[in-house]
Amino acid sequence: MDASIKSVFPAPLSSTALPRPTREEAEAAVRTLIAWAGDDPNREGLLETPSRVAKAYGELFAGYGQDAKEILSKTFREVGGYDDIVFVRDIPFYAHCEHHMVPFYGKAHIAYLPHDGVVGLSKLARLVEVFARRLQTQETMTAQIIDAINENLNPRGAAVMLEAEHMCMTMRGVRAHDVKTITHRFTGVFAEDRIEQDRFFVMINRR
Question: Where, in this chain's numbering, is Zn(2+) bound (predicted)?
Fold first, then answer.
């Protein structure tokens, strides 16, 4: 395996995944796609494109090499007895649709009610990045974020909401502009108590 691509793409997440191609094979695939699109991969402006795309993929899909458990591993218990909602709003994210491999982007809103301590606020933004930088659906990403919070922080309840615009709807197909898709999921107290759900939505809309 090419060492440069191995450094940004770790072992496959699933044991059933195909063997990781080499950097050279990835660049050859990009050249094939350029030719299939109708352009000449050997013209001056496209000569370095396969290398740039392979490098960009290392950044765009870096989430495959990141571990949510590690990111949420450090918690703080000395919080002066605070046990109310922890809420982080408007976390920006950029992801790629697994169906068309074009971007969808938007904001994530995360809340939880602490039980065994709190996590650094920046860690919640990093958690979103872990799952955004993979081939995704918005529904799956919503579930992955809240599942990671529940598994690693053991809160009394958690709430996650994503709102995003999907370029697979904007650039192609129906070509509907400015359409937002909203997904959310509640667990624990948030799932059981409508008042807590309402409080979550009020905090999202408070400006």
Answer: 97, 100, 168
Q: Which of 24, 25, 48, 99 is catalytic?
A: 99
Domains annotated for the chain, with CATH where assigned, are: 3-60 (1.10.286), 70-205 (3.30.1130.10)
Q: Is the pLDDT of residue 9 over 90?
A: no
Residue of 27, 96, 129, 138 with catalytic role: 138
User: Residue 84 contacts by C-beta under 8 Å, 6 or more apart in sequence?
Assistant: 113
Query: Was 109 annotated as part of a binding site?
Result: no
Catalytic residue among 100, 163, 184, 197: 100
The answer to the question of whether 100 is labelled as a binding residue is yes
Report whether pLDDT(24) > 60: yes
Rounded Cα gap, residues 188 and 85, in angstroms: 13
Whether residue 184 lies in the annotated active site: no
pTM value surpassing 0.85: yes
Q: Tens digits of per-residue pLDDT, 119-161? A: 999 999 999 999 999 999 999 999 999 999 999 999 999 999 9
Q: What are phi and psi of 14, to 5 degrees?
A: -115, 140
Look up 177 and say whether it is catalytic: no
> For residues 171 and 58, what is the distance between their CA atoms, to the nearest angstrom?
24
The 3-state DSSP class for residue 181 equals: strand
